[in-house]
């Protein structure tokens, strides 16, 4: 029998995304976000959620843009740091040894060292309790050549993204392939 663990953000896993912005002074900043995901396929869009107190909050509203930078597992320390330090007090790019690249498409920086980057234009905001959900239309996705599969699409096994368990505050890597989506379920349709 299942036991109640109480209400809370126990959905798992969540992504580990570093959101790139330029603050009001024009300084490149990063914020680690676990509250995020794909929210629409047409227009292709993602959502991230931030508290108003976060340094990146006003930057996204002011610039109307952000990037989603997907770190590989080798960047776990930098990803955690970007979530616990404040861009008000520190240059997170410099401290983490990362390079800010100015996007040609949106008014936000992305991380040169990360294998996968999603450039977004702010479409909408939604107030949800203590967080604001920022919905960004995907303007472009950039991937390192080394993480592309035979179809020239990002391969999760090559990207090696981090995932996060908010329940116990632990980072994980991806596991083995379990099956092909939109395929393995067909065996129950017979």
UniProtKB/TrEMBL annotation:
Highest taxon of source: Bacteria
Gene3D superfamilies xref list: Electron Transport, Fmn-binding Protein, Chain A
Molecular function terms from GO: FMN binding; oxidoreductase activity, acting on the CH-NH group of donors, NAD or NADP as acceptor
Keywords in alphabetical order: Flavoprotein
Boundaries of every Flavin reductase like domain copy: 12-155
Cofactor(s) recorded in Swiss-Prot or TrEMBL: FMN
Presence of keyword Chaperone: no
PANTHER family: FLAVOREDOXIN, FLAVOREDOXIN-RELATED-RELATED
Family: Belongs to the flavoredoxin family.
Protein name as annotated: Flavin reductase family protein
Natural source organism: Geomonas paludis
């Amino acid at each position: 029998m299942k036991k109640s663990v109480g209400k809370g953000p126990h959905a798992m896993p969540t992504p580990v995304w570093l959101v790139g912005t330029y603050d009001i002074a024009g300084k490149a900043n990063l914020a680690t976000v676990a509250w995020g995901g794909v929210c629409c396929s047409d227009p292709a869009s993602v959502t991230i959620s931030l508290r108003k107190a976060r340094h990146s909050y006003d930057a996204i509203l002011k610039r109307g843009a952000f990037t989603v930078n997907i770190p590989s597992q080798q960047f776990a320390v930098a990803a955690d740091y970007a979530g616990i330090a404040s861009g008000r007090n520190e240059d997170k790019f410099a401290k983490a040894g990362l390079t800010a690249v100015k996007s040609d498409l949106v008014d936000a920086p992305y991380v040169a060292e990360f294998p996968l980057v999603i450039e977004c234009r702010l479409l909408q905001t939604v107030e949800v309790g203590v967080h604001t959900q920022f919905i960004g239309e995907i303007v472009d996705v950039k991937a390192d050549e080394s993480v592309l599969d035979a179809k020239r699409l990002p391969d999760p096994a090559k990207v090696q993204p981090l995932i996060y368990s908010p329940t116990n505050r632990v980072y994980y890597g991806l596991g083995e392939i379990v099956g092909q989506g939109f395929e393995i379920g067909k065996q129950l349709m017979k």
